[in-house]
Specification:
Growth Hormone, Chain: A; MFS_trans_sf; 481 residues; transmembrane transporter activity; mainly alpha; two-stranded antiparallel sheet; High-affinity nicotinic acid transporter; 21 helices; transmembrane
Length: 481
């Protein structure tokens, strides 16, 4: 659907002169003013979207993964989580509703309103997180984890969906990486923060591990309230830009991929999108990338303990790999957007993950095993925004974007289940079956990446043929490799 021309021509004045030299100056001035207008508009969007969404996702990541810190802070003993597979069950149950509710949530996002829906989700899971500090047994802890998964389900796919509607295709990975690394960087220090909270043990008769859930839950509720006042909507529904800026944003997205204005959601369209094999390929790739990320998030302190470090040292040593990952993810995202290329940089980071897993799993040196955590954490963390950008660059229409982001992120939940079940308590401290399974996932990721890349190369060659004028419903739509 076409959008009306941008009002930039009326918004930016043009100097009228009679001489040819003055005409050139006038054109130069107009170009400079347009450039200033564009930079000011995009900076305003970045500041409105990315910091808050990044912090909210950081909170979501902390709330779902602080179980590991609480475990070594005394929860395992109090709730008897070391019996059988109780810890793995509690960890993995979170992902069942997390997977189930993502697609329905994305499909109704526009109707419910971004601000209302996302803020409600944040407050709801904050309440559940707080309640986890008062559970008397592992069964109620498992129930709270189910509720946590249900309320977090609609959040991450909605964020990805929203961000990808605001930017052109080769701007999106930097933005996805920006909000994602906020969670990576914050998550790196979350174990230290949780350890500090655990030192409150005994205050008000509450054990240290419970204070982790109580205080972090209260912080989540506070951010949920802030989100209701500040979070933004889709470009065509936003209220923080001027009319000229909104028209400018819609025009550039329409020019880039032809889906600035949302299409009508129908059951037929949803089914059609779900039958696209490429969405399943992206989803499996995302699952493979998230598996090591979840494994590190849930088990890094436990793995470090197995290397011989104390509880305190394990918590402190869990932070540096996340700092390294932050730098690596941003660097790869910048390079990927600069060169308008995704697959090669995803492949490099998947290989980094592979090397890291081999070092952590099989090296006899604790130092090299620790280096392996750096590489696998950075590689898997970088593949996540890379795959999200790769997939979003190669779909058009709001309905397909809603379906694809929900489906892809839900497969990330499957990766979480996989990670929490193959890293078994009985395999402590080296977790070799988990290492083998995670290595196999990286090989699968590389295979799927090769298949989609070959397919897109062939499609881009065919697009020049006169009898095949469109791709993804748009004229001259070239797939991003």
């Amino acid at each position: 659907m076409a959008v009306s021309p941008s009002p930039l021509s009326s918004a930016i004045p043009v100097k009228e002169t009679s001489s040819s030299h003055a005409d050139v100056v006038s054109l130069d001035d107009r170009g400079a003013e347009r450039w200033t207008f564009e930079r000011r508009t995009m900076r305003k969007i970045d500041l409105r979207l990315l910091p808050l969404l990044g912090m909210l996702y950081a909170i979501a990541a902390i709330d779902r993964s602080n179980l590991g810190v609480a475990r070594i802070a005394g929860m395992e003993k109090d709730l008897k989580l070391s019996v059988g597979s109780r810890y793995s069950i509690v960890s993995s149950l979170y992902f069942v509703p997390y997977i189930i509710f993502q697609l329905p949530s994305n499909l109704v996002l526009r109707q419910l309103g971004v601000r209302n829906w996302l803020a409600s989700c944040v407050v709801a899971w904050g309440v559940v997180q707080l309640a986890m500090g008062f559970v008397p047994n592992w069964g109620l802890l498992a129930f709270c984890r189910v509720l946590l998964g249900a309320f977090e389900a609609g959040f991450f796919p909605a964020m990805v969906f929203i961000i990808t509607t605001w930017y052109m295709r080769h701007e999106v990975q930097k933005r996805l990486a920006a909000f994602y690394v906020i969670s990576i960087f914050t998550g790196g220090f979350s174990a230290i923060f949780a350890f500090i909270l655990s030192r409150l043990g005994g205050k008000q008769g509450i054990p240290g591990w419970a204070w982790i859930f109580i205080i972090e839950g209260a912080i989540t509720i506070l951010f949920g309230i802030i989100a209701w006042y500040y979070i933004s909507d889709f470009p065509d529904q936003n209220t923080f830009l001027s009319e000229e800026q909104t028209a400018f944003v819609l025009e550039r997205v329409e020019r880039d991929r032809g889906d600035a204005i949302p299409d009508e959601l129908t059951k037929t369209k949803v089914i059609e999108h779900l039958l696209d094999w490429r969405l399943w390929a992206y989803s499996l790739m995302y699952m493979c990338a998230t598996m090591p990320a979840y494994a590190i998030g849930y088990f890094v302190t436990i793995i470090l303990r197995g290397m011989g470090w104390s509880v305190t040292d394990s918590l402190l040593l869990s932070a540096p790999p996340y700092v390294f990952a932050t730098v690596s993810i941003l660097l790869f995202a910048w390079i990927s957007d600069k060169f308008h290329h995704r697959a090669l940089f995803i492949a490099i980071q998947a290989i980094m993950t592979l090397v890291g897993l081999v070092l952590t799993g099989f090296s006899s040196s604790a130092a090299w095993r620790y280096v392996g955590i750096f590489l696998s954490n950075a590689g898997s963390g970088g593949c996540i925004p890379g795959i999200l950008a790769y997939s979003s660059n190669n779909v058009t229409s709001h309905t397909k974007r809603a379906v694809s982001t929900a489906m892809i992120v839900s497969f990330g939940g499957i990766g979480g289940i996989f990670a929490t079940t193959v890293f078994r308590q009985k395999d402590f401290p080296r977790y070799l079956p988990g290492i083998y399974a995670t290595i196999a996932c990286q090989v699968l990721l590389l295979l799927l990446l090769a298949i989609t890349t070959i397919h897109f190369v062939k499609q881009n060659k065919r697009i020049r043929a006169p009898d095949l004028p469109t791709r993804e419903g748009q004229p001259a739509f070239f797939y991003t490799l």
